[in-house]
Amino acid sequence: MSKRKHRPKRENLLTSPGTLTYIGPDNELKTKIRKIQYSEKFYKNEAVTSLAECAANPSLEPHITWLDVDGIHETALVGKIGTLYHLHPLILEDIVNTEHKPKLEVYDTGYIFLTLKMLHVDSEEPLEISSEHVSFVTGKDYLISFQEERSDDIFNPVIERLNASVGKTRRNGTDYLVFALMDVIVDNYFLVLEKFGEKLDLVEESIISGSKRESLNDLYALKRELTFVRRAIWPLRDMINQLIREDNSLISKEVVPYYRDLYDHTMQALDTVDSYRELLASLADVHLSTISNRMNAVMKTLTIFSAIFMPLTFIVGVYGMNFENMPELKNPYGYYYTWGVMAIVTVGMILYFKAKKWM
Amino acid sequence: MSKRKHRPKRENLLTSPGTLTYIGPDNELKTKIRKIQYSEKFYKNEAVTSLAECAANPSLEPHITWLDVDGIHETALVGKIGTLYHLHPLILEDIVNTEHKPKLEVYDTGYIFLTLKMLHVDSEEPLEISSEHVSFVTGKDYLISFQEERSDDIFNPVIERLNASVGKTRRNGTDYLVFALMDVIVDNYFLVLEKFGEKLDLVEESIISGSKRESLNDLYALKRELTFVRRAIWPLRDMINQLIREDNSLISKEVVPYYRDLYDHTMQALDTVDSYRELLASLADVHLSTISNRMNAVMKTLTIFSAIFMPLTFIVGVYGMNFENMPELKNPYGYYYTWGVMAIVTVGMILYFKAKKWM
Amino acid sequence: MSKRKHRPKRENLLTSPGTLTYIGPDNELKTKIRKIQYSEKFYKNEAVTSLAECAANPSLEPHITWLDVDGIHETALVGKIGTLYHLHPLILEDIVNTEHKPKLEVYDTGYIFLTLKMLHVDSEEPLEISSEHVSFVTGKDYLISFQEERSDDIFNPVIERLNASVGKTRRNGTDYLVFALMDVIVDNYFLVLEKFGEKLDLVEESIISGSKRESLNDLYALKRELTFVRRAIWPLRDMINQLIREDNSLISKEVVPYYRDLYDHTMQALDTVDSYRELLASLADVHLSTISNRMNAVMKTLTIFSAIFMPLTFIVGVYGMNFENMPELKNPYGYYYTWGVMAIVTVGMILYFKAKKWM
Amino acid sequence: MSKRKHRPKRENLLTSPGTLTYIGPDNELKTKIRKIQYSEKFYKNEAVTSLAECAANPSLEPHITWLDVDGIHETALVGKIGTLYHLHPLILEDIVNTEHKPKLEVYDTGYIFLTLKMLHVDSEEPLEISSEHVSFVTGKDYLISFQEERSDDIFNPVIERLNASVGKTRRNGTDYLVFALMDVIVDNYFLVLEKFGEKLDLVEESIISGSKRESLNDLYALKRELTFVRRAIWPLRDMINQLIREDNSLISKEVVPYYRDLYDHTMQALDTVDSYRELLASLADVHLSTISNRMNAVMKTLTIFSAIFMPLTFIVGVYGMNFENMPELKNPYGYYYTWGVMAIVTVGMILYFKAKKWM
Amino acid sequence: MSKRKHRPKRENLLTSPGTLTYIGPDNELKTKIRKIQYSEKFYKNEAVTSLAECAANPSLEPHITWLDVDGIHETALVGKIGTLYHLHPLILEDIVNTEHKPKLEVYDTGYIFLTLKMLHVDSEEPLEISSEHVSFVTGKDYLISFQEERSDDIFNPVIERLNASVGKTRRNGTDYLVFALMDVIVDNYFLVLEKFGEKLDLVEESIISGSKRESLNDLYALKRELTFVRRAIWPLRDMINQLIREDNSLISKEVVPYYRDLYDHTMQALDTVDSYRELLASLADVHLSTISNRMNAVMKTLTIFSAIFMPLTFIVGVYGMNFENMPELKNPYGYYYTWGVMAIVTVGMILYFKAKKWM
Asked: Where does the UniProt annotation place the signal sequence (chains A, B, C, D, E) (predicted)?
């Protein structure tokens, strides 16, 4: 069984609001920052080594700056980037709080703050799914993405597309870039759900065939993982909806259909989650019924054995009595007659249980 | 049990949005395209062999062009038709994504996009229902319908009516044509639900009579098929509602009552689905209670046998002891007395269990 | 168990919308039509024999014409009446579709269409409830009521009141007449629910006393009938609400309180249905618990018998052994001592089970 | 178990709407009417003996008239009071219909009609709760209260406060008087819920200790009483809300906070009801689990007895065989060896079951 | 099991509304009042000894007065403070009613009334959580906080921050002070939930390993505590939402983001509560299934023993019969053959049960 811990994680309790406290897994890796600058005409991707390089470059022609911060455990660094881009302290608190649930906030000062969950399959047997806390802050011409430090970078497909050709991403603004990054995350949900579906197929087979004993605990572990997945995906629904409806100048009209498409995909993922939930519930019912049926079979076996051998044992007991006057004992065929009677009793019992469909 | 797979199907994951990827069953049949042109005055139905023929014919007098595309696995072809009619790439993605759930989208550029599910009974024993992905794109004077390639064409009744006479369909616009095609699909739901109802009658009978063992798995398979059907029908409710309410110029006021009628039929289908669901739940309860009752009967049988034969075996055991001084053994009638005692015990037990209503 | 069929009934599938198809029970009786004309000053009730007589009589002073059509299986006749009063073909379809659920439609052309369900208790043991499809079309000065042909006419109380005296019905318009007819139907629901309540009392008693075996199937049958009743009554709630709120000229302000009263009664009927539902669920729980308790009792009996007789049988078995050297066998009181030991064992066991409260 | 009847009570079915029919318990007591007149300056409380005295007294200085009608079984009298104060016939119907659920109606003609339920604990063992139908009709300067005739008058505390001093009630209008009377009724709910809580404590204790057999039926009876209580209180929530929001001239702004307080108390009562419901559900689960545990214990006892005595009985059976050549029988210590083997088997079994934690 | 009492607590029933009645635990401690005055420039914290000192000090430069009343059992004192600050009597009633659920009320007269619950872990084994009733009344330049007298003061962290430096709290108005105090309370919820999570881990482990018998009662007790916690936290959601949305002049725009953050934390706490609820439900299922599995194991053991020893006992019974003519008895190897047959039967049975996977 997966060892999901049952404890709310909030370490900055009782400190002044806005204090940055990282509560995710310990992480030795150093924060990596990449700065990608592009417009339809040019594209530049460089690793950032000093805080000064993090700032946008106003001297260039109009372009988009994407700052990809890989690692949020160095809260001091996050704080400095926040200061550089004039972000509200409470946003910074949410960026480093890996337990914060997905949310969207539109700030009057012209930027949008988004936080969501990337899902990873940590282990397949038993199935364990973990989430990575990803945040975006986006203005008219910049996007800062924050993610927990992991070995594989989830945004590589988008970077490759940016690099490869002057496609839709290069032609559009930060609104399309945000969409592209969220799309990668949502597409990833389907990969996770596929793993889940494979596992579910195995459990279903084992439950219906009744071959494995620990099935219910497996079901229970799967249910918890599924609840975890659902909690990660569910808030996206409202967030995207809000992005589409929100009367803001940051999402242009041409990009709205892409967000609507993203919404559809999110709904499809949630639908899959819900159908898995129903399936798990059905499987639990089947499991319980299988247990009952098996108990029934055990009881029938016991009853059949008892009903056949109790009368026989009684009969042989009768002729084991030591009464002086028991005429049957002297009959030379008494022993054989007794066997005959016992054969009749046995056959009768078997016929009776066959009639009752217990055999 | 039906082998519905538990996996979300989306193959174009991590590709650029708008990439066309067909994920339905493999299909060797070539795409068939029919072009039907009609107005109140004329009617023309021809098989289309080249892409050029797919375009509407503006030189004719005002008429309606219905392009019926039978087969969506050739995504390149779908893409070309999309280009010909200036459809948004995301629409094309939804047309070929056979797992996309039913939805309606009204585009500012003057066309409506609709996608829904045709249901087919693939197998009756066990009951297996599959869905066919059907899409409509309709403007003022054209309708393009996309369906998966199947041997039987579901729109034949409408084509026959168009051909047969100058009826309501010929006199009205594309709004009525869309209604007529959707009506065929919704009517078909009732045929599928009828098969379902027949199957349900059988399962109900078998459960109430308690004759079949694998009833619960049957119930569970039916429940899954029903959930599948429900997911296919459910979104129609909102779609038709939106079509009626939507303040669009594409649905004329005269045709609205027909859509309202279609809405009623959809609700009736959903009501039937819901009553089947309740029935399945009730049957599962009856099934569980039947198992319990049967276990009870088994236990009673065992208890009655034990309670009768244990005392008898004890009695004959007593007189099987080898004590030198056991006066009863010397009594010439001891053996017969013993039988008498055993008869009394047996009758007493039977009366006791009769009184307890266990026999 | 009541033989409610699990099949959606719609026979005009795949025909052109607006085709009239009767799907109710076969009915040999000929359609009977009565025409009642009244105002505060006069009252006339005549059987109609020709279609021409069905039309309103404009030459008379202002009055209300109520056409009561008893029998909807002659769809041709219904169609002709529809033509006479200029009714929309889809309304006629709903009038003859006995499976259509209750609904209200207000037409711009100045008439209201209402369809609802009259409930009948067909059989009391087992309880079987059937519904009769009743429709009203009402304009400013006419009302056409359609009902399935049955031996007893449900509207008699209203006709009698109309005839008897110049009461509220005679003084008011068609809005009050519609109310009066609906009131009769809703009052009838209470009569049906009363029969249901009586049956429920019997089943409750039998379950709590645990006397009858087939109780769960009874519960299940009752639940299905109740669901049937609920489906018939539920839509009335919205319909009446809509009639009250709808800003239409057909319901006058003076009559609104009566509709509000009708609404209260409908809610009271639904409340009763819901409390019956809860009761049925509770009874199912009690039933299951009773089964468990009884199984418990059976098991205890078995265990007590086994625990008493197994040791005894063992003891007598010991002295049935044929060892040459068994000192007890030679003891002249050995047999009696053995009985003593067995008595002690038996009493000990009984005390043990008394202490455990199993006896 | 409480004998709550499962039947909707409406006796005036199929009569003309507005007919007054009393359906409460038979009641021999004569209707008692009190007329209380008060303003800040004076207070007068007199028993009314004739209908004429019921009318308000316009000759007096501005004051409030409260007519307290104790007994609604004399429907003729209620009808006459209705005529005197120009009440709508449907209101009178609701006043005498003791089964009508709580509701509020604001009439254009300047009066408010309120009906609610006073709860009484009829019996404590088993707990039986009955409701008394209380109605208020209130205008600017009069209030008529109707209640079923009971031995104790529920409004005494208010009358005493009116009499005792020139408090808030004397200084305010009928809006405050209505509040004060409703407050008495809501306060009374807490007294009833307290009795319920005491009973619940007892049942909880008996279920957790597992001492009483009939616990489930007790739970079931309590659940029904609780549902009854909930139905009585629930509609108050909306009623008070409506009184606060309703833009009417009858509730003055100063009195609104008191109604808001009343609303809070009603919510608190409903919260208590809901927590009792959850508790009952939990107790039912505990009860079922207790039954299962007990069955488990019974089965273990049986299995332990069987597993110990079956091998022993087999062993003694072996040496009860009569083969001529059985060397052990001739061994002078054979008998004692046999006892040794049996002791080892017994101890082995006991250790085995101890290891399995069955003993 | 925790002894949460099932009784609504309201002692001022049937008294005039606005009467102050303390219903919390008896409390010998005297009410302690602290008066804290601060602005950005100065800070003063003094114990209040007379009622006169409670009033704000208008002669000072503009500053904020926070009156922290520790102990609400002296209702007379609460009443006097209420008079001093012109509070509505119903507010005072809610301040001393420790059972009142959290609520927010905005008064026209320019102050806000807030009441919420502080949670305390009273005992860890079994887990017992109690709530402390905390209320705030806040105007433009004063805040009065009321809490039950406890040994530890929950607001100390805020007082320390006020004292320590000129931070956000000192620079902002009463709106930020209210936020800071509520934040302390919400942060505390996480500490309580953490204790809960630890306990849950223990119970989960004990249920999955199946080691403890009383697990279900533990589950049930935890569920009740959790429900208690949920009731305390749930209303906060609406309260904070209302504070944010409410178009009032008391919450300044700069402070709104902090309230939004508080809202997020409240939601996170509620999410944790809900996930614990689901977990408890799953554990109850696992528990029930464990019981069933164990019963199954017991039954199998019994059946295996019976099926092996019943035939053996029968066989030895056969040769214990005393027929004169039993050829086998004279066979010198008969005894050994019999053992051979019994060995075969035993091995056959064992193979049979192995094949059935019962062993």
From this structure: none
Please give the CATH number for the structural domain made up of B299-355: 1.20.58.340
What is the tens place of the pLDDT at every residue in D266-293? 999 999 999 899 888 888 888 888 888 8
User: Token digits for E184?
Assistant: 């302390």
What pTM does this model have? 0.81
Torsion sign across C-alpha atoms A191, A192, A194, A199: positive
Q: B261 with C17: CB under 8 angstroms?
A: yes
* Residue from B191, B286, B321, B352 to probe the interface with C (highest C Cβ count within 10 Å): B321
Chain segment C283-338, per-residue pLDDT in tens: 888 888 888 888 888 889 999 999 999 999 999 999 999 998 899 899 999 999 99
Q: Considering only the beta carbons, identify the residue of A294, A309, A331 that sits closest to E296.
A: A294
**Chain C touching partners, 3 or more CB pairs below 8 A:** B, D
Distance CA C318, CA B322 (A): 9
pLDDT tens, chain A, 359 aa long: 344 555 565 556 666 776 777 767 766 667 888 999 998 888 888 888 888 888 877 777 788 999 999 888 888 888 889 888 888 888 898 898 888 889 998 887 778 999 999 999 888 878 889 999 999 999 888 999 999 877 677 888 888 888 887 677 888 889 999 999 999 999 999 999 999 998 988 888 888 777 666 677 788 888 889 999 999 999 999 999 888 886 667 788 888 889 989 999 999 999 999 989 988 888 888 888 888 888 888 889 999 999 999 999 999 999 999 998 899 899 999 999 999 999 999 999 999 999 988 87
Q: How far apart are CA D134 and CA D117, in angstroms?
A: 6
Cα distance from D156 to chain C (closest Cα, Å)? 32
Nearest CA in chain D to C184: D14
Query: What would you report as the CA-atom Rg of chain E, rounded to the nearest whole angstrom?
Result: 34
Q: Is the ipTM, as predicted for this complex, more than 0.85? A: no
Dist. CA D31–CA D67, nearest whole Å? 13
| Spatial distance between the Cα atoms of C278 and C283, rounded to a whole number of angstroms | 9
Selecting from A267, A307, A318 the residue whose C-beta is nearest the C-beta of B316 gives: A318
Over residues A270-291, the pLDDT tens digits come to 999 998 998 888 888 888 888 8
Residues C292, D291: contact at Cβ < 8 Å? yes
Give how far E323 is from chain A: nearest CA, Å: 4
For domain C32-289, give the fold.
Beta Polymerase; domain 2 (3.30.460)
| Residue among A167, A306, A317 whose CB faces B306 most closely | A306
Residues of C in contact with B286 (CB under 8 A): 216-217, 220
User: Cβ of D305 and C300 within 8 Å?
Assistant: no
Check CB contact under 8 Å for A316 and E317.
yes
Q: What residues of chain D lie within 8 A of the CB of C188, using their CB?
A: 13-14
* Domain ranges (residues) in chain C: 32-289, 296-355
CA pseudo-torsion sign A76, A82, A83, A88: negative
**Contact flag A292-E295 (C-beta cutoff 8 Å):** no
E chain contacts of residue A334, beta-carbon cutoff 8 Å:
323-325
Topology classification of domain A291-355: Methane Monooxygenase Hydroxylase; Chain G, domain 1 (1.20.58)
Q: Chain E: residue nearest A296 by CA?
A: E296
CATH for the stretch E296-355: 1.20.58.340
Determine whether the interchain pair A323/B306 forms a contact, defined as Cβ–Cβ distance below 8 Å: no
Strands B112-124 and E103-106: unpaired
Chain B partners of C337 at a C-beta cutoff of 8 Å? none
* Short-list B136, B133, B130, B124, CA closest to B176: B136
The nearest CA of chain B is from the CA of C48 a distance in Å of 32
Name the one residue in this structure whose structure tokens are 């404890």: A7
Nearest chain B alpha carbon to C292? B292
Helix (H, G, I), strand (E, B) or coil at B96: helix
Do D268 and E16 lie within an 8 Å CB cutoff? no
